[in-house]
Amino acid sequence: MISFKDVNKIYQVGDQEVHALSQASFTLEKGKLTIILGPSGSGKSTLLNILGGMDRPTNGTIDFDGEQVAQLSDTGLTNYRRQKVGFVFQFYNLIPNLTALENVAIAAKLNGNDAQSESYLEQVGLRHRLNNFPNQLSGGEMQRVSIARALAKKPQLLLCDEPTGALDSKTSLKIMALLQQAAQNPNTSVVMVTHNPTFEQYGDQVIRLKDGVIDRIDDNHSPVKLEGLA
Ligand SMILES: Nc1ncnc2c1ncn2[C@@H]1O[C@H](COP(=O)(O)OP(=O)(O)OP(=O)(O)O)[C@@H](O)[C@H]1O
């Protein structure tokens, strides 16, 4: 379980303070999908960067299964990022001169389980694309590779930053289905950041951000399940 308590992020721009995140408190549970929803500039990236250990809060506490993430040294934070967090980005960030399989194997190697790279691609429906390079894949397929790459780290936290932002609506739903599938793993919390409110129905929890403040947190007891669509 990951708990944020009264987390603030203040950027100093010249003599101005920008309160990118104010008093953020919430919990992410394993085996659940959380949608973080908010318009441009509401603090989504700031929150994601802190969750992923790419940035530190100005103050507040972050408890990750008992580990105090905000107190970690630089090395501690690097290890946290490497060992616990998988990332999925809007524009996939695949290495262009490596095949789908090699892109996944590189990440899997970090955790010493590169023997399973093929099975991660199989999980995302790309058994037939192992030896294709990114430029031979569609946008949806590239996003599948990037999800396989993130899952290959066996992350306890899977962070997805606008993962459907560059995809058409039909492909987006398939990616959404894969994220729901990933959240069935009882060891993984899945977080999807989006500005698109149509996705809120698919999450177990919805956190709404507005001007750096959590406006509302809703538990969705019967999210729409996209099973079979992935
Ligand atoms: N490094 C920084 N220095 C100064 N201000 C920043 C910095 N990063 C973000 N901000 C400011 O913090 C606020 C929140 O930004 P953030 O990027 O987290 O929003 P967002 O919801 O992710 O927006 P978008 O959807 O456009 O990416 C904005 O006012 C932004 O200008």
CATH homologous superfamily placement = P-loop containing nucleotide triphosphate hydrolases
Q: What is the radius of gyration?
A: 17 Å
Low-confidence stretches: none
Taken in chain order, the helices and strands follow as: EEEHEEHEHHHEHEEE
The CATH level-2 architecture is identified as 3-Layer(aba) Sandwich
The top-level CATH class is: Alpha Beta
In terms of DSSP E residues, the strand content is 25-35%
Structural class: alpha/beta
Q: Provide the list of bound ligands, each named once.
A: adenosine-5'-triphosphate
Number of continuous helical runs: 6
Organism: Limosilactobacillus gastricus DSM 16045
InterPro entries: AAA+_ATPase (IPR003593), ABC_transporter-like_ATP-bd (IPR003439), ABC_transporter-like_CS (IPR017871), MacB-like_ATP-bd (IPR017911), P-loop_NTPase (IPR027417)
Protein name: ABC transporter, ATP-binding protein
Pfam family, one: ABC_tran
Short overview:
This protein is α/β, with parallel strands linked by helices. It is built from six helices and ten strands; from the N terminus they run βββαββαβαααβαβββ. It has helices at 44-51, 74-84, 100-110, 117-123, 139-151, 169-182; strands at 2-13, 16-28, 33-37, 59-64, 67-68, 85-88, 157-161, 189-194, 205-210, 213-219.
